[in-house]
Amino acid sequence: MNKDVLILGIETSCDETAAAVVKDGREVLSNIIYSQIDLHTLYGGVVPEIASRKHIEKINQVIEKALETAGVSLSALSAIAVTYGPGLVGALLVGVAEAKAISFAAKLPLVGVHHIEGHICANYIEHPDLTPPFMSLVVSGGHTHLVNVLDYGKYEILGRTRDDAAGEAFDKVARAIGLGYPGGPKIDRAAKEGNPDAVRFPRAKVEDAAYDFSFSGLKSAVLNYLNTAKMQGQEINTADVAASFQKAVTDVLVEHTISAVKKRGEKRVALAGGVASNSALRAAMQEACQKEGITLYCPSPVYCTDNAAMIAAAGYYEYINGVRSGLSLNAVPNLKLGER
Ligand code: KG4
Ligand code: ZN
């Protein structure tokens, strides 16, 4: 009988210190996340230096808890998978240095994982039937990518954002309408009370690239709307602005995804990244997919936002494909998907 492949995943690319143990790429034995959100809320966004320091303070506890919850000792592990990019360099370095130290001390193979690949692989955790090829829309605080998942570890990027990421737009607009940080979940909540057709915000198209995204014009349109209303002494209906902005973002995300899927003759779509937990996006994508006979996969919200189970899942497929990083692994803040 084949031995179970147990991977310890480590994630510290932004403001979550996370560790998880995953069996055979799909079964989560533990998923420990220390979120620093409260700490950064004071400053209205992630402060890189504070994030790095907090990772250093928490990483050992989080890893110990992940191993203890899974009931697994270091010697039972097959490998360590760690996010080495993209992300904040100081934050990434904490995870990478920790993973290298454990790999050296416990004589375990080390596998560097791309953060976005992790987000995509979060879909494998709860959907045992999902195997490549499929289309994935990755929408997070730092990234907006439409990706054709050709095989495990093989990706073709069809579209990306030219400016702000979808999550970044949510965070900036939330700040402008006074909802605070982190903006995504707050806009999601406020929008439930608002009218998505109250204000017609622009849906940007990128001339020469049908699947690319651009959200900075939308963000400016919201800011202009708010300034104009203020100058005219009109009261702003926060819920209506939140709902209308959210609709403008989700319309574009859904339209691009469906048009790429139809063109490629693909039958499955997987959402990924923090913004994939947005209730309006999930509902709109579900409706559009149903209309076209496409199956939609979404991770549970806890696997949408940053976590280490997704890194262990991605690490598993890299590991069985023979990828080994070695102790020269370094943090790569602007790592591109598909590069090593
Ligand atoms: O994937 P993630 O945890 O971190 C990155 O890799 O960037 O994504 C965080 C982003 C933030 O911009 C946050 O506002 C957004 O995901 N987000 C949401 C929701 N939950 C988190 N955006 C819209 N609706 C949500 N419910
Ligand atoms: Zn992320």
CATH topology of the largest domain: Nucleotidyltransferase, domain 5
| Helix content, binned percent | 40-55%
CATH structural class of the largest domain: Alpha Beta
Q: Find the CATH superfamily of the largest domain.
A: ATPase, nucleotide binding domain
Strand content: 15-25%
Q: Stretches where pLDDT falls below 50 for ≥5 residues? A: none
| Biggest beta-sheet profile | 5 strands, mixed
Total of DSSP H or I helical runs spanning 4+ residues: 11
Bound molecules: 5'-O-[(R)-(carboxyoxy)(hydroxy)phosphoryl]adenosine, zinc ion
Question: What is the C-alpha radius of gyration, as a whole number of Å?
Answer: 20 Å
The average pLDDT value, as a whole number, equals 96
According to DSSP, the number of beta strands is 10
Strand order of the largest sheet: 3-2-1-4-5
Could you say what the CATH architecture of the largest domain is? 2-Layer Sandwich
Structure overview:
The two termini are 33 Å apart. Helix 4 crosses helix 11 and helix 5 (166-176) packs across helix 6. The model has no long low-confidence stretch (mean pLDDT 96). Strand 1 and strand 2 form a beta hairpin. The chain has eleven helices and ten strands. With 340 residues, the chain is an alpha/beta fold. The chain is globular, with a radius of gyration of 20 Å. It has helices at 37-41, 48-70, 89-105, 115-126, 166-176, 183-191, 216-231, 238-264, 279-292, 301-304, 309-320, and strands spanning 6-11, 16-23, 27-35, 79-85, 110-114, 134-139, 144-151, 154-160, 268-272, 295-297. It has a five-stranded mixed β-sheet with strand order 3-2-1-4-5, sandwiched between helices. The chain has two domains: 6-121 and 304-320, ATPase, nucleotide binding domain (Nucleotidyltransferase, domain 5, 2-Layer Sandwich); 132-301, ATPase, nucleotide binding domain (Nucleotidyltransferase, domain 5). Bound molecules: 5'-O-[(R)-(carboxyoxy)(hydroxy)phosphoryl]adenosine (KG4) and zinc ion.
